[in-house]
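Q: Predict the assembly, please.
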Amino acid sequence: MRVEFVRAVNAVLERDAKSVFLTADLGYNAFEKLAATFGPRFLNVGVAEQNMMGVAAGMAMTGLRPWAYSIAPFGTYRCLEQIRNDICLHDLPVRIVGNGGGYTYGIMGSTHHALEDLGVLKPLPNMQLFFPCSNNHVAAAVAQVAELEGPAYLRLSISGFQNDTAPVSENPVTLTRRYASRARAKARGLTIVCAGHAAQIVNRMRETESDLEIDVFGIARYPFDLDKDVELAASVAETRRVLFVEEHYASGGIGESFAARVAGQLDAFEHMSAAYRKEQRYGSAAFHLAQCGLTPDTVAAAARTMLA
Amino acid sequence: MSLTPALVTELRHDALAIRKYFLEMHHRVKAGHIGTGLSAIDMLTYLHKSWLGADDLFILSKGHGASSLYATLHHFGILSDAELATYYQDGTLLPAHPAPGAFKSIPAATGSLGHGLSIAAGIALARKTIHGTNGRVAALLSDGECNEGSVWEAATFAAHHSLSNLLVLVDANGLQGFGATREVLDMEPMAEKWKVFGFDTREIDGHDFEQIHAACTDLDPRRPRCVIARTAKGKGVSFMEGKLEWHYLPMSDEQHRTAQSDLGGLDDARDHDKGSS
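A: Predicted assembly structure:
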């Protein structure tokens, strides 16, 4: 998603003189053009994420709209207090960008995985989270983030099951994508809801007979706005069964918030997520997803079980 | 702006009045953080009377000194009697550490140490390199706060970007949360540290207005300024000076009477200030 992000944020910086771009010394082979184009509005602050967030807050206090980039674990955990105190409590338009959500940096090891990033940021006051589903979803997310008057976090990821399937439809307000519709609309069916790039796992499921009874949605924003997500809300109301898939720990994840939001409407809710393992071994993003049972086949099996 | 003898006298009278009002505030609501406020009041007085212009900003990075800032802003007519009457009470916008977005003259909510310098540096950089405006930024830190690694991230950043519009003051009262700074985590030689980080550094008596003024003016056009202000925690109140417990304790009625008596009247201001530095 980084290529798409750079293209989109370049356009934002071109049209908005108040936008500035900070990076904590990351962006090799990606940000060179931004650096060359935008002069003092591009700033490598060095390997100092706490300072980057405080500086971004200070710049925002002068009327600027800073983007603050790092890889997802570094740009969230180390500087969480700066994000909370300096940015969120002051409701400042700082756009935090974390590249490498979930297991994107699989073989880089545990320190580089971001499996709690949404969870630690989700409760922060004024914070809005954006987690696009695939490369072709990034530009729309950047465009929305660029318009915000308050803080935001944009989670960029590369899926272990890469898939840029175009959606059937996309809600321009909520960014929610519909990837599949029940062919047998009168059947009771199942709603699969994916948070962000977990949609790419689901979109790699082989079509089966049971797929005909499944609605698939990819959501990309938190807080939810189900009043505007008419198709998703209708599907949940009709099927009363939700299988939620996300590349994030269950605790603090988007799924538990979604479950709480629709709890009164549901007969069944299953949550497939990343999971911590004491005996962790390391590999590609797909390897890690397989280790915690997040594959197209396991999702399909879970769906079949819920439909049975 | 030169510091005339008349202005020095005025500053001493202002600082004394602020200290007296500050003690009343704390006594009224039985609030702690008295010692840290008393060590900073002379610098706050100077900054708000003589240094800060319309385009300048002040960040209280040592947020636990908030009440001394409130008292200072009140003295100079920036916060009202009605606002100060709510200090430390239910429903107030003046809690023990600054609140976000409550008052233009308090731009940042601080209280967790090690945040204010980065914010100040961000403002200074934006003004210097993007907005092209002349406003300066001052940040007041505590010496204990300099334990925080984020302070040194910010210091490195400010010096690297030659933030000549940034003034850092360190209220070096020598005491922190649970002991003497030298014993808990010795940051000395403090002035040398800031110097090698790239600051134009001065070391002064933080209760001497001539020295404060000299250290805060004629900023170097190539680098930020850092003033290590040697102060006494609890300054002006004999039984508080240099005592760790006055970071926390509220005053009894008797202690408040003694404290006000220690400070003396306005007529004593000059002698008092000279005698106890």
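Residues 93 and 147 of chain A are 9 Å apart (CA to CA). Residues 2-156 of chain A form a domain with the Rossmann fold fold (CATH 3.40.50.970).
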